[in-house]
Write a structure and sequence with these properties.
alpha/beta; Rossmann fold; seven-stranded parallel beta sheet; binds nicotinamide-adenine-dinucleotide
């Protein structure tokens, strides 16, 4: 169902890889709500070719950019400005840890890999915002969003160095968000439930963890599509004064100590 909440709004969506990606669903929902946008991803991811289908479906242009490269980001933003003039929204839906990919334990991190993952998953959010800031290309009441996970606040062992990357990402949203206030632009992160995507499935034992989070969340896990709906509200004019926040979108997981479903599995009696 479309409410035309984003009619006339222009943006950039980073991170749609395939139709499981959160950014893919965000692009579909933004399109339904009347927005126009450029789709961007790392050149290596674009070679897989799946993004063409999304571009066609949403009438969008694809412009590749490694989000850790200031040179790529400059070119992308110049093209976006040439196409749209100023922008109303940016989605940063990017994450990757080399240590997770290669199965390196947190107690034995490879620091070169750590730096790479930190740059891709966290610093790139600063780089994206710095590029937009320097080009002064955001409209007043624009909205910038990043995606994060609760491992930034609580320990989930197999999330590994991504926990630290997410803590850093959330801090960048708060800190840069303060400065964006001068320009009447808001910056937030959404802390999403575990979601079955390429990045999500990279975490060891992910399937079991999905089921655990489902049982621990009074409303159940939030799906990628539900996350996309939430992004739409945060890009819309209905949330103008929400900024510098980490917003949990997780069916209540973050505030649940133990649920009845989990308690029953361990014979814990809750009256
Ligand atoms: N899936 C989950 O369980 C979950 C939960 C909470 C938060 N998140 C976050 O949501 C975001 C999107 O992840 P997803 O789950 O949709 O998985 P995904 O694998 O579909 O998306 C990750 C994207 O990051 C892109 N990327 C990697 N390196 C890049 C680079 N150098 N430059 C530009 N793009 C690059 C990938 O190509 C991919 O499109 C990530 O920030 C992730 O950490 C995911």
């Amino acid at each position: 169902m479309s409410y035309r909440l984003l009619k006339g709004k222009k943006g950039i969506i980073f991170g749609a890889l395939n139709n499981q990606s959160i950014a893919w669903k965000v692009a579909e929902r933004c399109h339904e709500e009347g927005a126009e946008f450029i789709l961007s991803n790392a050149p290596i991811a674009m070679r897989l070719g799946e993004l063409d289908e999304l571009a066609e479906k949403t009438g969008s242009e694809i412009i590749g950019a490694d989000a850790t490269s200031m040179e790529d980001l400059e070119k992308l933003f110049d093209a976006a400005i040439a196409k749209f003039g100023k922008l109303d929204f940016i989605l940063h839906s990017i994450g990757m840890s080399v240590n997770v990919r290669k199965g390196k334990r947190y107690t034995d991190l490879n620091y070169e890999w750590l730096e790479k993952g930190w740059d891709v998953s966290a610093v790139s959010f600063h780089k994206v915002m710095k590029t937009a800031w320097e080009k002064d290309c955001m409209n007043e009441w624009g909205s910038i969003l990043g995606l994060t996970y609760i491992a930034a606040q609580r320990t989930f062992p197999d999330y590994n160095d991504m926990s630290d990357n997410k803590a850093y990402l959330e801090s960048i949203a708060r800190t840069f968000g303060y400065y964006w206030g001068e320009r009447k632009v808001r910056v937030n992160t959404i802390s999403q439930s575990p979601t079955q995507t390429t990045a999500g499935s990279g975490v060891k034992g992910f399937g079991g963890f999905l089921a655990f989070a489902e049982d621990m969340s009074p409303l159940g896990n939030a799906s990628a599509l539900e996350c996309a709906d939430y992004c739409v509200t945060l890009f819309s004019d209905l949330t103008k004064k929400v900024t510098m926040q980490n917003l949990f979108h997780d069916g209540g997981f973050s505030n649940t100590g133990v649920s009845m479903k989990v308690a029953k599995k361990y014979d814990i009696i809750i009256e």
